[in-house]
Design brief:
single chain; Endonuclease III, domain 1; 53% helix; DNA-3-methyladenine glycosylase activity; Adenine_glyco; zinc; DNA-3-methyladenine glycosylase I
Length: 213
């Protein structure tokens, strides 16, 4: 594997060029190749993504990815209507669950955000309809997206707007950096580096994608 820190790209043993951050680890690379940046409209998946980005704060995403099945089991498959009914007994249960990140504030935040998601669905019809309203306009995105651009911009005007609106609605652990990572993961932006084999594939998917708005 050849790592190109200046470009943000690596060439794997198979000769395929991709974003460097998966480090050619099998599970991480699969996430990069098959999931990250692909447009998502399923409400449970969207809720999962934004909650796990909150849990990731201060940790590596790989840590969260490798615990994701445990998180799904602990939080009812991220069915936010079910999670919104969690009570103090569930909090205590989750604090004892070694398979997840046992952070009381983040656990309670997930339960709170589930209740806010129920309200959001009632207002907009779906979480997808709400979130996709914040997709950046073409003029807000760089023409050429490289590693230096990504490293220098952990937030964007769109992620700041979305973060502020979520906080007004009572959501927590949704700062602009966390929200930007969520936007990248759920395909609201295509932040695969120029030269990554996934970038054109994801761009085609985004062009064909029918926005739920």
């Amino acid at each position: 594997m050849v790592e190109e820190k200046k470009t943000g790209l690596i060439t794997g043993e198979d000769g395929i060029v991709s974003c460097f951050w998966h480090g050619n680890l099998e599970d991480y690379r699969h996430y990069h190749d098959e999931e990250w940046g692909r447009p998502v409209t399923d409400d449970h998946r969207l809720f999962e993504k934004i909650c796990l980005e909150g849990f990731q704060s201060g940790l590596s995403w790989l840590t969260i990815l490798r615990k994701r099945d445990n998180f799904r089991a602990a939080f009812a498959g991220f069915d936010f209507e079910a999670v919104a009914r969690f009570d103090d007994r569930d909090v205590e249960r989750l604090l004892e669950d070694k398979g997840i990140v046992r952070h009381g504030g983040k656990i309670r935040s997930t339960i709170n955000n589930a209740a806010r998601a129920v309200e959001m669905k009632a207002e907009f019809g779906s979480l997808a309809r709400y979130f996709w309203r914040f997709e950046p306009k073409p003029e807000e995105r760089p023409v050429v997206f490289d590693w230096e651009t990504l490293r220098a911009n952990p937030t964007t005007p769109a992620s700041v707007r979305l973060s502020k609106d979520l906080k007004k609605r009572g959501w927590s652990f949704v700062g602009p950096t966390t929200v930007y990572a969520f936007m990248q993961a759920m395909g609201m932006v295509n932040d695969h580096i120029e030269g990554c084999h996934c970038r054109p594939k994801v761009e085609r998917l985004r062009m064909e994608f029918v926005r739920p708005v």
